[in-house]
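step: validate -> pass
step: tokenize input -> pass
step: predict -> running
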Amino acid sequence: MSNLNHMDRTVTQYVNTKVLVARLVHLSATIRKLESYQSSSWADRALHDLYAELQRIWPQVEEYYTQMPTYQMEREFYAELVQIKIKAEEYLRRTKQEQ
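step: predict -> pass
step: emit ->
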């Protein structure tokens, strides 16, 4: 299901939490892989898009991890996601200033 936000970007609303978690695992793995290619312009563009996607779905991530009883492994993954989100905010802020 998709909704348009005030910036006219499509925001995916994950109804199934398993799908949300699977997407987060994929985003996390892809971001880690692309970060090793950071000197490449195509990797920078891909990272920008993935970071922006993470920012858009972050409210759902917080809702999932604050409302669900979580196991140690899930808490560790959430901590990793928070670190990625911090990097994403810094990266997006820096690229916006460069424009």
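step: describe -> The mean pLDDT is 81.
step: cleanup -> pass
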